[in-house]
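Supplementary Methods. Inverse-folding protocol.

Structures were first reduced to a discrete structure-token string of length 184. This string, shown here, constituted the complete conditioning input.
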């Protein structure tokens, strides 16, 4: 059965670092659509015993950003597809750090160079829990996909900026998302 932890210790950190995919869940305060997004690409880091962050790359929606701006609630779930079964949930309060924010450059040093992120999501973790994961299938990791990088490189910075203005100004429920887009 599941346990609740006071902090992300070395054992939990090793589990987190071994996972190739994680899931992010957010929701607006009232009504609207719940969002659940899979993430990967070596984009997740443990920053402290109760602090994590991930790189948020340009995408067709900005639900997580909009929901965090509205209420800050976020849950991150990691589950093992290889090795012993386990599901780990990190419940917390998230903050959207955009490239124009003072702390962005320092946070970015925790992640590999490469594609430019549209933001970094930093989470103060309030609850850390695990469960068995007995129902999660065993699957073997083959490789990271390269399509997002190829898509971004093909477009180049000017077209990526236009894309974000078009697609990342608001959530599907009309909540404001990227701050810099509002100011454009």
């Amino acid at each position: 059965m599941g346990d609740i932890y006071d902090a992300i210790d070395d054992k939990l950190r090793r589990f987190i670092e071994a996972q190739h995919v994680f899931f992010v869940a957010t929701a607006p305060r009232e009504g609207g659509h719940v969002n659940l997004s899979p993430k990967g690409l070596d984009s997740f880091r443990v920053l402290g015993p109760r602090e994590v962050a991930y790189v948020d790359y340009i995408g067709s929606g900005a639900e997580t950003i909009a929901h965090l701006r509205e209420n800050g609630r976020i849950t991150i779930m990691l589950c093992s597809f290889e090795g012993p079964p386990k599901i780990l949930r990190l419940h917390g309060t998230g903050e959207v750090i955009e490239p124009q924010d003072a702390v962005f450059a320092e946070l970015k040093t925790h992640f590999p160079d490469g594609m430019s992120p549209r933001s970094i999501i930093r989470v103060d973790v309030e609850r850390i829990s695990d469960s068995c994961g007995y129902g999660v299938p065993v699957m073997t990791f083959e490789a990271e996909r390269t399509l997002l990088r190829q898509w971004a490189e093909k477009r180049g910075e000017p077209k990526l900026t236009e894309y974000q203005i078009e697609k990342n100004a608001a959530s599907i429920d009309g909540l404001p998302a990227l701050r810099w887009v509002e100011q454009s």
